[in-house]
Amino acid sequence: MNKLQRRFHLHHKLLQLISFILLWLFAYNAAYGCWVDFYEYPQYIGAHIRLVGPIRLADLKDVHGANWDDRIDSLVVSKKARVSLFDLPDFQLANRDVYQNPDYMQGLGITKKYGTEQNGLTFNEGEKVEHLGVWNFHKKTKSVIIDCVPQN
Q1: What stretches of 1-152 show up as alpha helix (H) in DSSP?
Q2: Alpha helix locations (H) across 33-108?
Q3: Among the residues of 33-136, which ranges form H helices?
C-alpha cells in the first residue's frame, strides 16, 4: 500500500468511526433521551410519530414526509423532554390573552419560570396526555417546540 492509499484508508476509517459515534448518539437519544411521541387519536392510537429534541418546528406540514398539521390528539413526553404546542404556525397562539392569565397557566401545569419563556400549551417531563381535547386542543397543533431537560 502506497502513502496515498494509507492516508485515504486512515481518513476513511476515521470517517466511519465518527459516523458510527453520531449514529449511536442519535439512537441513544431517541431511545432513552429527549423525545415526544405524538398520536393521531386519543389514548395513544392511530398514526404515530416520535420527534427527538431539542427541535423547533414552525409548522407540521412536512414532518418525516407526512403532514401532522391539526392531527395530534394524544402524546407521551420522555423523562428528559418538555414540549410546547401552538395552535398557529411559527409558535403563535390564537387565544394569546388567555395564556397571559397566571391562574390559567398554573391550571395547564406551566411553571412561572417556563411560562415566561414559552407561551404554548406545555407538558413536562414524563407526562402522558390521553386526549388533548381536555385542554380544548383537539387536533389543533400547528407548531411544536421540544426542549431537552437536564437531569440532576
Answers
A1: 3-32, 102-107, 112-117
A2: 102-107
A3: 102-107, 112-117
Residue 129: count of CB within 10 angstroms of its CB: 23
C-alpha cell at 148: 431537552
Query: pLDDT tens digits, residue range 64-78?
Result: 999 999 999 999 999
> For cell 502506497, what's the residue?
2
> By three-state DSSP, how is residue 17 classified?
helix
Task: Specify the DSSP class assigned to residue 66.
Answer: B
Nearest CA-CA partner of 38 in 131, 111, 115, 135: 131
Amino acid at 9: H
| Closest C-alpha to 66, from 47, 87, 85, 93 | 47
- If DSSP codes are grouped into helix, strand and coil, which group holds residue 100? helix
How far apart (Å, rounded) are the C-alpha atoms in residues 29 and 34? 6
Q: Which three cell numbers stand for residue 16?
A: 466511519
Q: Say whether pTM exceeds 0.90.
A: no
Helix (H) or strand (E) holding 144: strand 143-148
Residues of the chain with pLDDT under 50: 31, 113-118
